[in-house]
Each structure stands twice: as C-alpha cells, then as structure tokens.
Inverse folding.
C-alpha cells in the first residue's frame, strides 16, 4: 500500500509564525521550494505559506514583507494528511481542499510534505489526472 510516509519529502523545514515574510521568502529561495509550513513556538503546524501568498497578499497588497509575520498569513486550520494514510486519501484530500501540497503529520508532529509531484511519481497517470482536473476547476 502506498502511504504518505512512503512518498513524502521528509525533513520539512518550518517558518516560525513570528518570522517575517521576507525571512520566509529567503528560506524558500535557499531550499528551492514554493511553500513552507508555518509552525508556532509550540512546534505545531499553524498553516502553509506559499510563494503565491507572498506575492498576492503581501507584495501585491503593498505591504512590507519585512514587517508582515508569516503567522499573519496562516488561515484557519491547516489541511494535513496522516503519515499512514493511503494514496486514495491523499488524492481525496488534495482534490476536496484544492491543495497541491499536504503537510504529513505523525501524531502532532510534522514529518514531511506530500506534493502533487510526489503523487505524480508514485501513482498511476489516471489518478493523478483526476486530481489535476479537480485542482484546475472552481
């Protein structure tokens, strides 16, 4: 059985909720990623920060990325997947929430990220196509 634990990218680095969006953007650049989990001082997941969030909600809105905190962009409860959830649950969660990246949680601890690219490498083309279609529609 293909599980999130088997296909995820491990060792996901967080941006702390109290770090600036500018610091988060620098970290994204250093790591070569388009999204970072936002973690609180309690090491619990608070949300996800994407490069699109930086552009649209900060730069496009005329805000100073050095002043805006990453935690200010965390919206509601983060959509996650359990480490031992199977591929069907990953696809269902991505499709229903229209997300391309899912933080992988083991208990309450963040252990990795499953991105659409990870799913594409691990699962049959038809299943991946269905997710892409769901993500592309309103």
């Amino acid at each position: 059985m293909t599980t999130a634990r088997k296909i995820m990218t491990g060792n996901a680095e967080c941006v702390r909720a109290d770090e600036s969006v500018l610091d988060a953007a620098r970290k994204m650049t250093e790591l070569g990623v388009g999204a970072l989990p936002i973690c609180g001082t309690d090491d619990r997941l608070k949300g996800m920060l994407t490069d699109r969030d930086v552009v649209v909600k900060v730069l496009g809105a005329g805000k100073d990325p050095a002043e805006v905190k990453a935690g200010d962009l965390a919206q509601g409860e983060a959509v996650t997947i359990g480490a031992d959830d199977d591929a069907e649950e990953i696809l269902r969660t991505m499709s229903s929430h229209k997300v391309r990246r899912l933080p992988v949680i083991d208990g309450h601890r963040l252990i990795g990220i499953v991105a659409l690219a990870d799913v594409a490498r691990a699962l049959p083309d038809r299943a991946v196509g269905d997710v892409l279609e769901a993500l592309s529609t309103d």
User: Anything to note?
Assistant: Residues 125-136 form the longest helix (12 residues). The first strand starts at residue 9 and ends at 10. The radius of gyration is 15 Å.
